[in-house]
């Protein structure tokens, strides 16, 4: 399907949702089969990563043959840097959690236009439906006290200090998809990550978060830019907009 290279269409939003959902459902079935077969964890991870990647790339090749795709599981296509439209995907976000039989893994499918993620689908099939920019939910009701979600394996060194200063509860989850979904649905109020990540980890979560009216930025408050020559992002903050200034202030104090 050909598009104006500077725009995203309603079909793009539907495609992201359908592709992420299909990959997530396939992975959920595969998780049951692979765990039942008592395969080694590294074998589980490899099979799942490749299977989801193949499904997503095949679908994008049919639906959007002119758009480059940056995927965690593929060699970086240099052509993407000259394209205004680039799909950025993580076929299995939270491979470790998947192989451990947990449910806090997901699938991220995003379309970036001129460096900005404008289309995103975040599927966390183990705990709920696909959340996407096709029909973004509004801001949920705020809990009486904040809940911060951080990485299971690489939480920020200042996470405990932040929780104390914000009088918040701290909880660890596996994937960026699961943590973003928690904020979007109101189960959490703040998601902060400082251990380094790639664009495929965060493009779809950022697209979804901003479409829902949430704050999304670097930890210093600066804007997030995607489709960069090195697809790396050192840190990420997604939170309710009314908490952004306070969170950023606590982070600045912790890092000084």
Automatic annotation (TrEMBL):
SUPFAM superfamilies, per the entry: Carbohydrate phosphatase (SSF56655)
Gene3D superfamilies registered for this protein in UniProt: 3.40.190.80, Fructose-1,6-Bisphosphatase, subunit A, domain 1
Pfam family, one: Inositol_P
Residue ranges of coiled coil: none
Membrane-spanning ranges: none
Annotated InterPro entries: CysQ/Inositol_MonoPase (IPR050725), Inositol_monophosphatase-like (IPR000760)
Alphabetical list of PANTHER family matching this protein: 3'(2'),5'-BISPHOSPHATE NUCLEOTIDASE 1
The name this protein goes by in its record: Inositol monophosphatase family protein
